Amino acid sequence: MTSRELLHSKGYEMLFGAVPTMWLAALRIAFDTDIKPSNEWPVPRGIDWRHSQLDTDPTVQAVCRLPPLLAVVGELIGERFFLSQVEGREPLINGGHQQLHRDLSAQRPGDTVNALVYLDDYGLENGATRIVPGSHRPTSGEPPFDFTDESRSVQLTGNAGDILIFDADLIHAGSLNSSGARRRALLITFFSDSLYATHLETVGLRNIQMDTSERFQPADFSFGS
To answer: CATH classification of 3-138+145-210 is 2.60.120.620, yes or no?
Structure first.
């Protein structure tokens, strides 16, 4: 199986150590500086998470444009795309647990891709992400997924600077931060260019401040074989 086939089969890719180490301190400062309480967002956020509005920070924007990240996103979306949103999220102690779920593509399978950029080491104890590999494209006749069934879920562990990139239909969830150790992350969303008009309709609700006019072409980035 080629790397392209494997990516589309799994529905996700891990880029270990993708963020330059010298950027991490600036990213953590940006995260902590721009934390906003739930009631200061247009749509209230979960009270067991910290949320940071950091989308105009230059180092955050540079991370969103890392060529290896854009190469995976372009391969998954398969057509011209844009950066729709980036914000900071961190589960508080005894918070962050989510039931398995899909974020869902908007108009066609594969038109939405998410990325989590970990700014701290992550694992079960501090609420890292769980995923169900290959769950983004159910086979014909497959019974509906039981989102309470954790038997196929995989708990991610790793280090600050890693990036998880996944199809929005991949089943995933945050975990309980039982230790209280910090687990800051950037949540990035990329859309197919065809979704731009829909994106503009919800910019205010999502509190997006950055410019989203730039476009990326899959052919401009090299992804495997």
So the answer is: yes
